[in-house]
Write a structure and sequence with these properties.
Order of helices and strands: HEEHEHEHEEHEHEHEH
Oligomer: single chain
Largest sheet: 7 strands, mixed
Structural class: alpha/beta
Strand content: 15-25%
GO cellular component, one term: plasma membrane
Keywords: Acyltransferase, Transferase
Number of helices: 8
GO biological process, one term: phosphatidic acid biosynthetic process
Helix content: 40-55%
Number of domains: 2
GO molecular function: 1-acylglycerol-3-phosphate O-acyltransferase activity
Pfam families: Acyltransferase (PF01553)
Number of strands: 9
Shape: globular
């Protein structure tokens, strides 16, 4: 599988570029299913974790990676499938349920599944409220969750950056968090799932020391985008008014 080609052959090049340091690797179970739950700072996060994990980690990838047309589309689908990535429809709901079922199968087959509970990259370096997918998977399968902290990846690959810069980053794997025995299996309540999701967030925060925001990152991103658009519109209106005033003040020749 290309996953190990990436780790063993391309890995040295990536390590030279990113200089990843790993701590707490012994907290990753040597066998059996588990969830690597990490904060999310950069698009390279899912490349850094495989460089430091002794076991293969499967990830979800947005469905666009698997539906492209032509040679490029076929290559992307082949590549992501080969390195252990499977598609998820970010529209959520029933559209994303298939991806969650795949993740559940991966865990039950004794493999590791990697996920960022925040659901998207942090827009400002803070830690945002976790979605409940990782918590539900752990509660339903009884597998451990390994809270993971990423540091410095946002400096190597900033939002909007195309090519990663040379730099250093760190990955810290925390002690596994296990679902309570009475919670395992079906019949879970929403509150049980929410509570365990928050427990995972607290475990990640204890590692990273990030400021916690009790809102979903997607919501904050939309608010920030709306504020930026409004600011740009206000500035454009102000510039237009200034230009009009300047034109009316010019003396006639």
């Amino acid at each position: 599988m290309l996953y190990w080609f990436f780790v063993k052959v391309l890995g040295p090049l990536a390590r030279h570029r990113f200089s990843p340091k790993a701590f707490g690797v012994d907290n990753i179970p040597r066998q059996g299913g588990g969830i690597i739950a990490a904060n999310h700072l950069s698009v390279i996060d899912d490349g850094v974790i495989p460089l430091t994990s002794p076991r293969m980690v499967h990830y979800m990838g947005k469905s666009d990676y698997f539906t492209g047309k032509g040679i490029k589309g076929a290559f992307k689908k082949w590549w992501f499938t080969s390195v252990g990535v499977f598609p998820v429809d970010r529209a959520g709901g029933a559209a994303a349920e298939g991806a969650m079922n795949t993740a559940r199968d991966i865990i039950e087959q004794g493999h590791l599944f990697g996920i960022h509970p925040e659901g998207t990259r942090s827009p400002d370096g803070r830690l945002y409220k976790a979605h409940t997918g990782a918590a539900r998977l752990a509660l339903e399968t009884g597998c451990p969750v390994i809270p993971t902290g990423l540091f410095g990846t946002d400096k190597i690959m900033k939002i909007g950056q195309t090519i990663p810069s040379k730099g250093t980053c760190t990955v810290i794997y925390g002690e596994p968090v296990y679902p309570s025995k009475h919670q395992e299996g079906t019949g879970l309540t929403r509150q049980e799932v929410r509570d365990f999701a928050d427990k995972i967030s607290r475990a990640i925060q204890q590692i990273t020391g990030q400021e916690y925001v009790d809102e979903y990152a997607q919501v904050v991103k939309k608010q920030m985008a709306a504020e930026a658009a409004q600011k740009a519109a206000d500035q454009a209106k102000k510039d237009a008014s200034a230009a009009k005033a300047e034109a009316s003040a010019e003396p006639e020749l």
